[in-house]
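Running this now, will post back.
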Amino acid sequence: MKSRYHLSILAIIVILFFCLYFSSADFRRIAFRSAEIDSIGHIISFFCLTWVLHSILKLPLLNTMLTVAFYGVLTELGQYYLGFRSAQVSDFIADLIGIGLFAIIRWSILMYRNRSSQRSG
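Update: finished.
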């Protein structure tokens, strides 16, 4: 049941993004105005990837973080060897920020739930 809930939220976010993208020229101009959007894209995508692996597949958080970080390294190494792509350390750092952001939010939620259960019990 929870996995369907997570997939529904993810689908809604993706649909909203594409609706904004295709309906607003201003949104496209703002979103793709600078190179920083690439870093923001890495942060968001690795946040979502970590969320999906941890929540839907029920992998432990530490294993998920290590696996997704390893995937980030592999993608940058793959880009290094491709002639039409370039590997950047800043992209990998953005990947780690997305992973870490999810871990901090998840840890905060767990701490809040533990504190709430101790008060009620």
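The first helix runs from residue 2 to 23. More later if anyone needs it.
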